Amino acid sequence: MNAQTKKRRVDQAVQAQARRARAMSRQIHAWAERPFREVKSSQCLAEYLGEQGFAVEFPFKKIPTAFRATWGAGKPAVGMLGEYDALPGCGIDPDGDWGHG
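Given the sequence above, the corresponding structure tokens read:
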């Protein structure tokens, strides 16, 4: 498979998930959950990954908002850390609501 074919496959895979990814992003932004209270956000992402065929451990390492999702075996191994907790003073209202930066 040449590079152009690989790129086309990746582009198609991304486009197939784009609408759902944008909707999840907007929802997580709207929830604006505080650190270690991202219950809805982490559950949303874990459920999505489970639907996509990942093996999901939720919660993970006794942290109620953490999860680990794995797929496949062997190498390469790819890891990702997602930070999506809200920040103080970043909300829409000027009175110091929590929101995303």
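The helical segments are 3-31, 39-51. Try to locate this feature in the token string yourself.
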